[in-house]
C-alpha cells in the first residue's frame, strides 16, 4: 500500500514539474542537474575523534558528553576495514567527518579520502588541513558570532585558558583555499559584526554559509529576542555579498525562524538528518516525512550509532546542514508555482555550491586544472596511457591566480 502511494506521489511530482518547466527549458535543466548530482551522493557522518584542541562555549559535543560516551578507535587497520564495509555493504560514498577536531589526525582522514569519493571535514580551523593528499576534501570552518564574539565563544584552550586571534589564524590558514567554506553561526548578540566579518572572509578569498548559534546548556537555547533584527541584517548582508554568502534568502529565514511557507516548523518530526539505524527512530521513520537515505552518524568507536547529525537534543536546534537538508527533501512543497520551484532550485544550488567536489562550485573546474598543473607534465607510458610526473616539492598553499579574489 505504501509502495503504491509513493509511486502515485512520484507520478504527480513528475507531472507537476513537467508542467512548471515546459516553457522554461533553462529552469528544467537546472533542476535536472541538481537531481542528477544529488541521487549519486550517499552520505554518512563520522565522529573521527573525541579530542579537540579548543573548547567552544555552547559546543554540543562537549556539553552533552559525546567526548566521553565512547572510546575512539585509533587503529588504522580497524578504521579502514570499517570504511570498506561502509562502502561495500551500505554503499556510502560521501563522508561528513566531524569530531572533536578531525585535522588532529590526518592519517585517519587519508583513509576516508582513499575509500570515499566525497569527503567533507568540519574543523575549527586552528590547524590547517594539509594540501597534498587532501586536494578534493571540502573543509567547513566553524565561526561563532563574528567580531570579538568569536574569540569569546571559541578561543578557549582545553585547560579553560582564553586566547585571542582565532579568526585571524583561520583566515591565514585558509587564505584563498578553494576547499574552504566558513559556516558562520549567527547570533543576535553579534548583529553589529555580521557585515564586517563577511567582508573579511570575502577579502581572504573564501566564501561562507550561515548557521544559527544555539546556546546549548542555557535557559534560552534559541536566543531569539532580536530575531527580526538578526534576520533583516543577515538578508541585507546576503544582498551585499551574493557570491560570498552562499545561503539562499529562503533558507536564511527558515534557519533563523524555524518556519516555512507551508506552515511547518523545523523539529524532530520533520528533520531528515537522523540515523536511520538508531532504534529510537522507528516511529519517526513511519510518519511519512522524508529522511536522508543511507544516513547514519557513527561515534568514534565505530560501533555506536548516534541519534542524529548533531547533539541529539532537538529543542532549538538550527543546524545548518539539517535545515538545508529539510528544505531540499521537501521539494513537493515548492511545486505550487514556477516561482516557488525556482526558489527551491536556488536553495539546492546554494547548498551544493559549498562543496569543492560538486559541479555547482564555480571554482571546481579551475581547482581541477590547478591540481593537474601541480601534478606536473604528463609522461607517456608503454601501454599508451599517461601518468603525471611527480613534483616532490610542490608548495604547501595553493596560490593559483585562478583563485585570486574568490567571492568578490
Automatic annotation (TrEMBL):
Gene3D superfamilies per the UniProt record, alphabetical: Aldolase class I
Keywords linked to the UniProt accession: Iron, Iron-sulfur, Metal-binding, S-adenosyl-L-methionine
Entry-linked InterPro entries: Aldolase_TIM (IPR013785), rSAM (IPR007197), rSAM_sf (IPR058240)
Domain of life: Bacteria
SUPFAM superfamilies for the chain: Radical SAM enzymes
CC cofactor: [4Fe-4S] cluster
GO molecular function: catalytic activity; iron-sulfur cluster binding; metal ion binding
Name of the protein in question: Radical SAM protein
Organism encoding this protein: Tistrella mobilis (strain KA081020-065)
Lineage: Bacteria, Pseudomonadati, Pseudomonadota, Alphaproteobacteria, Geminicoccales
Amino acid at each position: 500500500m505504501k509502495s503504491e502511494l509513493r509511486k502515485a506521489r512520484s507520478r504527480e511530482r513528475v507531472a507537476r514539474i513537467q508542467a512548471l518547466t515546459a516553457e522554461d527549458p533553462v529552469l528544467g535543466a537546472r533542476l535536472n542537474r541538481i537531481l542528477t548530482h544529488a541521487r549519486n551522493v550517499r552520505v554518512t557522518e563520522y565522529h573521527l575523534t573525541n579530542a579537540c584542541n579548543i573548547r567552544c562555549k555552547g559546543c554540543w559535543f562537549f556539553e552533552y558528553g559525546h567526548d566521553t560516551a565512547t572510546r575512539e578507535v585509533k587503529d588504522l587497520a580497524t578504521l579502514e576495514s570499517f570504511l570498506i564495509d561502509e562502502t561495500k555493504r551500505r554503499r556510502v560514498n560521501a563522508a561528513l567527518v566531524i569530531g572533536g577536531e578531525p585535522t588532529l589526525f590526518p592519517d585517519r582522514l587519508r583513509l576516508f579520502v582513499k575509500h570515499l569519493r566525497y569527503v567533507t571535514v568540519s574543523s575549527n580551523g586552528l590547524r590547517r588541513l594539509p594540501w597534498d593528499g587532501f586536494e578534493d576534501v571540502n573543509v567547513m570552518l566553524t565561526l561563532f558570532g563574528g567580531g570579538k564574539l568569536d574569540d569569546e565563544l571559541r578561543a578557549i584552550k582545553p585547560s579553560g585558558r582564553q586566547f585571542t586571534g582565532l579568526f585571524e589564524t583561520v583566515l591565514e590558514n585558509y587564505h584563498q583555499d578553494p576547499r574552504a567554506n566558513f559556516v558562520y553561526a549567527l547570533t543576535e548578540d553579534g548583529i553589529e559584526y555580521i557585515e564586517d566579518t563577511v567582508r573579511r572572509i570575502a577579502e581572504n578569498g573564501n566564501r561562507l554559509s550561515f548557521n544559527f548559534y544555539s546556546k546549548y546548556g542555557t535557559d534560552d537555547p534559541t536566543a531569539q529576542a532580536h530575531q527580526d533584527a538578526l534576520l533583516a541584517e543577515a538578508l541585507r548582508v546576503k544582498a551585499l555579498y551574493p557570491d560570498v554568502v552562499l545561503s539562499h534568502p529562503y533558507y536564511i529565514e527558515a534557519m533563523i525562524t524555524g518556519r516555512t511557507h507551508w506552515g511547518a516548523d523545523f523539529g524532530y518530526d520533520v528533520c531528515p538528518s537522523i540515523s536511520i539505524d538508531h532504534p529510537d527512530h522507528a516511529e519517526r521513520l513511519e510518519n511519512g516525512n522524508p529522511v536522508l537515505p543511507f544516513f547514519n552518524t557513527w561515534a568514534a568507536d565505530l560501533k555506536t550509532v548516534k541519534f542524529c547529525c548533531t547533539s541529539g537534543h532537538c529543542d532549538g536546534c538550527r543546524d545548518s546542514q539539517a535545515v538545508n537538508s529539510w528544505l531540499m527533501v521537501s521539494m513537493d512543497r515548492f511545486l505550487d508555482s514556477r516561482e516557488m520551484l525556482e526558489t527551491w532550485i536556488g536553495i539546492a544550488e546554494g547548498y551544493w555550491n559549498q562543496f569543492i567536489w560538486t559541479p555547482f562550485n564555480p571554482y571546481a573546474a579551475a581547482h581541477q586544472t590547478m591540481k593537474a598543473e601541480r601534478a606536473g607534465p604528463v609522461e607517456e607510458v608503454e601501454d599508451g596511457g599517461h601518468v603525471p610526473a611527480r613534483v616532490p616539492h610542490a608548495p604547501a598553499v595553493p596560490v593559483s591566480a585562478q583563485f585570486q579574489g574568490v567571492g568578490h
